Amino acid sequence: MAKRFSIRRQPGFATIAMFSFFVLYLPIATLVVYAFNSGTSIATWEGFSLRWFQSAWQNQQVIEASIRSLQIASIAAVIATVCATLAALATTRTAPYRGLTFKYSMVNMPLLVPEIVTAVALLILFSRIKVWTGYSGLGYLILAHSAFCVPFAYLPIRARLESMDLSLERAAADLYANAFQTFRYVTLPLLWPGILAGLMLAFVISLDDVVITEFVKSGGQDTLPTYMLGQLRRVVTPEMNAISTVFLMLSLAIVTVFFFLSRNPQKDDK
Amino acid sequence: MSVDAAELNEKLHRKDIRDRWFLSAPALILIGVASVGPLLIVLLYSFLAPGNYGDVKWAFSTDGWFNVFFSRDIFDDTVSLADAHFTIFWRSIRLALATTVLCLIFGFPTAYFIATRAPQNRSIWLFLITIPFWTNMLIRAFAIQEVIRSEGLINTILIKLGIIQAPIQMLFTDFAILLGMTYVHLPLMVLPLYASLEKLDFRLIEAAYDLYASRFNVLMKVIVPLVKPGIIAGSILVFIPALSSYVIPRVLGGGKNLMIGNLIELQFGQGRNWPLGAALSVTLVVIVLFAMLYYVRNAGKNGGSAHG
User: Fold this and answer.
1) Whose CB has fewer CB within 10 Å in chain A, the N or C terminal residue?
2) At B72, which helix (H) or strand (E)?
3) C-beta separation of B260 from B280 below 8 A
4) Do B168 and B214 belong together in one domain?
5) Across the interface, do B17 and A98 touch by the CB < 8 Å criterion?
6) Which spans are transmembrane here (chain A) (predicted)?
7) In terms of CATH architecture, what is A59-269?
8) B14: domain range?
């Protein structure tokens, strides 16, 4: 009753917000807690144990799928980030020119097309190429992942470029640095946090992908998410929780670093 | 002399643009080859005849498209509307719309809450919203599955409290899909809403209160119109991926409650009717394009007035 009148307050909003946060974290928290269950059920708690982490560690399929996931994500993230950096340099800090809108929409296109449609399209294309060339390695997955990671890597790099000060590059040019020197010694160091942020974003996105991987992969090319999708059809043990928990921790670590890299770009320019 | 300078400038400008094409080439080629280009193949395949064991025969056929909308009886060749497809399309649209509304109901107060915190605390709240967003979608779906299954957290608590005697079947229902999609897409609603609400000019709200507006009127007549671009952006960002969901209905719908995404997959898996699958994919893209078009038109109209 004695609450001071505030123009910013809307009744019930804080409660709904707290509820939203609670609901966002409750399932994840439950999942993590039951990863430490000593029983075989993912619903009844029987005591603390690390046995499911051990059993996941000893599961050959899980280890292979994890290594494959990390391989694909690392290579795809690097390819996507290099392409995205160059594209960001080509599409920022300029007056509008013919083709700019085209480039911009092309780069962002993978965000708009439903993933299931891209997955189907790649299935059609790659199944043909597989027959023609006889090659059925990880290359297809890496190519597909690189492509859909480009817009994610592009976002933070572009944001960084747009908030960057042009005068330093002009100064370098005035001091007779050539275009390459200016880029190498002025632009690139300033852009670096954006590039790293883009790289990490691309890595997480590639690591998380289920749909496109599920359609593109050849036999025996399960990544961790597609392996988990297959397992969900059967009786699930807390081993799934243990795998998920490790996966979660990895994503969380990367996203935390990303968060600190990408906030307040002006602050660390000084 | 000034003519030379102008000529030189023009030359430099042209070189700059040429360089910019070279720089963007790798990204354009990569996306062209492995993301946008293949969509044209899908369009092509939707006009071919199905092969016997999947894939296609290289013959022009409109059967794929015909089968999207109509079904032909195997016995007497009578043609009727493809009820199964319409049902699934309608279900998908309904579920995606319901997801959007639920995300708005929970996302708006959440975004408003974050936007009215002290500036130095906002990024922490935003971070808390983004963490689940970067968590693997499959893991989140699995987490929801655990909470709502018959012997899961909710049923256990309700039974312990004596509210229900037997567990409620929540998993593998439309409710489960709706819950999962809302859960997964909520951050996509909160982020653009926050971006709009953060720029909200609270002097306008003060003015409304000075003119004796009630809290509800301030919300509906001042705040909501001002952040309309954010509401539209968030709704589109939720609606499009929700409509094309594949993982959530597969994990939480239990294989019998299909959405468009699962229907498409079926044609490439068990159905072995690639042209039909391709035609369904094109249909989905067209629906998404219409939603985007709606967004672009409305955001363009309202974006200007919000900044003015």
Assistant:
1) N
2) strand B70-72
3) yes
4) yes
5) yes
6) 12-36, 70-90, 111-131, 137-157, 185-207, 242-261
7) Orthogonal Bundle (1.10)
8) 2-45
Q: How many Cβ contacts (< 8 angstroms) between chains A and B?
A: 262
Q: What is the pTM of this model?
A: 0.88
β-pair type (B70-72, B56-60)? unpaired
* A202 close to A152: Cβ distance less than 8 angstroms: yes
- Cβ atoms B61, B44 nearer than 8 A: no
pLDDT tens digits, residue range A22-49? 999 999 999 999 899 888 877 778 888 8
β-pairing, B70-72 vs B79-81, is antiparallel
Q: Do B42 and A215 touch (CB under 8 A)?
A: no
Contact A110 B42 (CB under 8 A): no
Average pLDDT of the segment spanning A89-109:
87
Could you tell me the end-to-end alpha-carbon distance of chain A, in angstroms, rounded to an integer? 48
Contact A208 B32 (CB under 8 A): no
A43, B146 Cβ separation under 8 angstroms: yes
Chain A residues in contact with B184 (beta carbon < 8 A): none
Any domain includes B273: yes
- Does residue B53 belong to any structural domain of this protein? no
d(CA A168, CA A174): 10
DSSP string spanning B17-66?
A: HHHHHHHHHHHHHHHIIIIIHHHHHHHHHTTEEEPBTBSEEEEE-SHHHH
Interface predicted TM-score of the whole assembly (ipTM), two decimals: 0.87
SS3 state at B211: coil
Percent of chain A scored above 70 by pLDDT?
Answer: 94
Residue of chain A nearest B247, judged by CA positions = A211
Q: Let me know if residue B119 belongs to a domain.
A: yes
**DSSP H stretches of helix in B116-227:** 119-134, 137-148, 153-160, 174-198, 202-210, 215-217, 224-226
Q: What are phi and psi of B162, to 5 degrees?
A: 80, 10
What is the reported pLDDT for B3?
65
